[in-house]
Amino acid sequence: MNPLGSFWAKLAHGFAPTIIEGDICQLGYEGSEGVRIQIENLNKSFGDNHVLKDINLTIEPGETFSIIGPSGTGKSLLLKHIVKLETADSGQILINGHDVAETGKINANRNFRYSMVFQSSALFNSLSVGENVGLWLREKQICGEVRIRRIIREKLRLVGLAGKEALLTSELSGGMKKRVAIARSLAMNPDLILYDEPTAELDPVTSDELARVIMSLKEKVNLTTIIVSHDLNFALYLSDRVAMIHDGEIIAVGTPQEIKKSQNPIVRNFIYTTTKGIKGEED
């Protein structure tokens, strides 16, 4: 029998050959490196509704950057443009110098990976926690099974869920589901991770726990993080810098301290009404 033919026959029929079962990964999987993002004069309209208006932002490699503002101001829409779920009417988004809208170029030259933690967590209810975390690795045959199981354990440990591989998603609280979704994203070893309203539907205590998980990841994983949130307390605690969107426009960008001290009346009103009255805070 032709050994090479046997190898591909097994692969085609779903049988994992020895190399797939082993402790190896595809070249380029290991390690992550934060990316630089440049958003230049980005515009998006739906009919007569001009939602994003000349958005300009630069996010540096390794930075944790939050985009804040009231609901319906275009925050999540901007995130969708970064991951190519939406296409801009004009302007561009560059990641490490590559225009994300140019599909051929991005596929040929992209040297980064990104993942997104959705507001709903988007877990598969028919799979266990471990199966959810390892899904991408197995579907793409990124690593051998021995390594996949190790990666699952490692990523769950990073989000405080060590030993929870066998649990079903139906057995999880809302906060645990968010952490599993983060672990699943981390399993890709992304250079860029994006969070869409991570505290949505969470109580204040669970939101604080999630914030501590993301803060801990900043110290352990080298990646660029973008958080979209209307929860200003959450954003100020986690971020190196913050941008505020109002009526589709960026009206302020700065460190958390700079945002808190902003004299822009729209920013100050948003801060005062969402952080329990820090309007007069001087620190």
Largest sheet: 6 strands, mixed
- Principal-axes geometry comes out as globular
Q: What is the averaged pLDDT score?
A: 85
Strand content: 15-25%
Biggest sheet strand line-up:
6-7-8-3-9-10
Order of helices and strands: HHEEEHEEHEHHHEHEHEEHH
**Alpha carbon gap, first and last residue:** 75 Å
Keywords summarizing the entry:
single chain, 283 residues, alpha/beta, 6-stranded mixed beta sheet, 4-stranded antiparallel beta sheet, 11 helices, 10 strands, 22% strand, disordered C terminus
Characterise this structure.
The protein contains eleven helices and ten strands. By secondary structure, the chain is α/β, with parallel strands linked by helices. Mean pLDDT is 85; it is low at 1-19 and 277-283. Strand 9 (241-246) and strand 10 form a beta hairpin.
Briefly say what this structure is.
The longest helix is centred in the last third of the chain and has 17 residues. The chain is built from 11 helices and 10 strands.
Describe how the helices and strands are arranged:
Elements: H1 3-12, H2 18-21, E1 37-46, E2 49-59, E3 64-68, H3 75-82, E4 90-95, E5 98-99, H4 103-109, E6 114-117, H5 129-139, H6 145-158, H7 174-186, E7 192-196, H8 204-220, E8 224-229, H9 232-238, E9 241-246, E10 249-254, H10 256-260, H11 265-274
Parallel strand pairs: 3-8, 3-9, 6-7, 7-8
Antiparallel strand pairs: 1-2, 1-4, 4-5, 9-10
Helix pairs in contact: 5-6, 5-7, 6-7, 7-8
